[in-house]
Design brief:
Layout (H helix, E strand, L loop, with lengths): L1 H33 L24 H20 L7 H10 L2 H15 L4 H22 L2 H12 L1 H4 L3 H16 L7 H21 L1
Helix pairs in contact: 2-3, 2-4, 2-5, 2-6, 5-9, 6-8
């Protein structure tokens, strides 16, 4: 009986978790569909940003959803059960984060050309959040282990020159941003990066 109850409880927990994850995915999908800053671009040249429909009120939720979606993609790459290759690691990383890339295009326009007190308030709030998001990626040990495997593999020597250059750039970017640090040094680097983002956004305000 006890074993039956334990199995039943475990099954119920799994069901609740599955439903919760499904609902979260639906919420994120619904939010992306209704947020113009997350929408895929249309028009000439393979699609252009909808500058005529930019909505500052949509910026913060778009950033939050874009970061969350990208981190989920990164976790999937980092935890891939297949051995690390150029295609399933480096190329997969290049393809990830498209939603956030679109949002950051608008962020750049507001920052450089349409800055207002309202935008600068959002900028000051979100700059350290973006810094933390970037740190979660560059200090993802499982992800960097896969990048390092590709970087040091025989496969890389057989890639085209442009592909080898991409592997080099990805590895160097992670190494320069604390991926090779350990323990307290990793935490210290993350704290400094966050603080620098806070100070920079404060100066721009």
């Amino acid at each position: 009986m006890c074993r039956y109850l334990l199995n039943l409880t475990a099954g119920c927990c799994a069901l609740v978790l599955a439903v919760a994850c499904t609902e979260r995915s639906k919420d994120m999908s619904s939010g992306a569909d209704s947020n113009v800053l997350l929408a895929e671009w249309s028009g000439p040249y393979g699609g252009v940003p909808a500058f005529d429909r930019m909505d500052l009120g949509a910026l913060k939720p778009a950033l939050e959803m874009g970061m969350a979606a990208h981190l989920e993609e990164i976790d999937a790459i980092a935890n891939d059960s297949e051995p690390a290759t150029f295609e399933n690691t480096v190329v997969a990383m290049e393809r990830a984060g498209r939603d956030l890339e679109r949002v950051l295009a608008y962020w750049g326009i507001w920052s450089a050309n349409r800055s207002t007190p309202e935008f600068r308030e959002i900028q000051q709030e979100m700059a350290p959040v973006l810094a933390e998001y970037r740190t979660k990626i560059t200090q993802n040990q499982a992800l960097f282990a896969r990048i390092k495997t590709v970087y040091e593999s025989d496969e890389t020597t057989s890639l085209r020159p442009d592909q080898q250059r991409l592997v080099q750039l990805v590895y160097d970017r992670f190494a320069r941003n604390g991926a090779t640090l350990e323990g307290d040094a990793r935490e210290r680097y993350a704290a400094i990066d966050k603080r620098l983002a806070e100070l920079k956004s404060g100066q721009e305000k």
